[in-house]
Amino acid sequence: MAAKKTERLLNLVICLLATRRFLTVQQIREAVPGYDADNEEAFRRMFERDKEELRDLGIPLETGSNSHWDDEVGYRIARRDYQLPEITLEPDEAAALGLAARLWQSAPLAGATGSALLKLRAAGIETPESATGLEPRIGATEPAFEACLAGAVTGRRLRFDYRTSGRPGPEARHVEPWGVVSRHGRWYLVGHDLMREATRVFRLSRIVGAVTPEGPAGAVAKPEGQDLRALVIRTAGDAPRTTARVRVRVGSCWELRRAATSVGADGDGWEIVELGYSDPGRFADRVAGYGADAVVLAPDEARDAVVRRLQALAETGADLEPAR
Amino acid sequence: MSTPEQLPRLLALVPYLLKRPGIAFATAAADFGVSEERLRKDLNLLWLCGLPGHYPGDLIEIDFEGDTITLSDPQGVDRPLRLTVDEALALVVALRTLAETPGLADPEPVLRALAKVEEAAGAAAAPADRVAVALEGGGSVLPVVRDALERKKVLRLLYWTAGRDETTEREVDPVRLVVVDGQSYLEAWCRRAEGVRIFHLGRVQELQVLDEDAAPPEGLPSRDLSQGLFQPTDGDTVVTFALEPGAAWVSDFYPCDTVDDLGDGRQVVTLRTRGTAWIRRLALSLGASGRVLEPPELAAQVREDARVALSAYSSR
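ok -> structure tokens follow
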């Protein structure tokens, strides 16, 4: 049954590619084997479904009529719109493509890569297996990924429930999606939040439940000059704003040293590092983890933030003391 | 397999075979990711198809000779179909990511391949600007690691272990370079630990390619890193954290065994760990917003860590 249908569709594609004139539905019915010759109604339904399937595959079905006096609609496929243009790759370019093709690890982009490679192989390109032990991989395990990607690509407004840190429950958002960005292994949706009337960055893992498209496709356009990656990085608050001085034990706190703009000796076994930060709370998260090996000297906002974290643990923890 | 997959496969199969007269059955099946039996069914269907009328000479012609296939008379399906938006996007964004991550690949051929794919895709490539990927290559370290892998040489690393906040020198036999969750890692045989270790390139302080051929022991198990780097074992400690709304990122960031939502954005989570040093650091950095509930010894240890750290502030 399924094979019969594939056969019919393939014959339909060959027939419409071969014709220069638009073919009417009755001409197609006679030319392509597999259409019902007796039942007009059944034939029409079947042809409608076939057209739909071809368009879903990206086959450009053209409609029109052969002259001004002819008012019956006909169909054909223009070769120029159908076929992949000539493409040849040098061996080093093919190797680069082979490496790139292994990047996507999960649906839907892994599948799209596979079918794209089939087409390129059909065009005569050979992509060698990478032999260098290089495995760049990007996953997209967030359930919201596929719908957010589709919204951004088709330019369609999206609605979803979103969890925000510090709020009791998820809240409904209506967003014009500009794009999706992967950073540090997490996916973000960037767009215009219609309720808040501002640019917002959403972490996909915090979207609760389904992402529903709203309104027509093509209604949203990414504004000129918006750099998606820059928006995500800015929201993550990575750009340093203030410089802190931290006293660190020699041989420890390498992550702070790496970020330091200067390192100087400070007595026996200690050094002072200076490094930039943007948010005192997040900076305190980084420093407090080193415990007694890192002491913030300045500024006060960073020092106080660390002390608050440590006090909360040292003092209020007493009532949790296990019975012995 | 039903129509949605079979038709696009057939439309690619015709030009593919046309370009490769006399190709081996097994090679074609492997390139299309199907069994030889499946391929045979596809071919049996193909030669029933052709131009209207289906007279001899109108049909797609396929010759089998031994284990090889030769296709002639493609009946107009002699070129593959254009790339769809999704297909163009997958390739273009992947190539851009390679080009923009320093050290991952030689950017020059990547950019040439990118330009050619973009041109062939035409308008379908336009929506690719809606997707961006930022990978951490590890700066100047990555090209050196790649060089060692390509030439199969031993690497000497000065490496910082975050959990113990300690830097050690090691000689390693590189196995492969993996990028997981946007970060680059080297999987290698560590001669010091006599085992396979995974090194975060962002924590390599210094490195040097030695003039000695790498020889990782034979038969090392190939690890599936697609589920993340951390793979739990039986000897792990199970730690329970109570998280306030401000520390909800912990359950996003670390693979947790269980996550219980208490409402109001509060959570109780459990996670497994081999060593507890990094958990103590995590607990210190969370302060009041994430408290260790179990095991009690660990909770007491964190409290003691906090007291010792605080004394440095009160004494000044």
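Chain A has three domains: 2-82, 145-235, 242-316.
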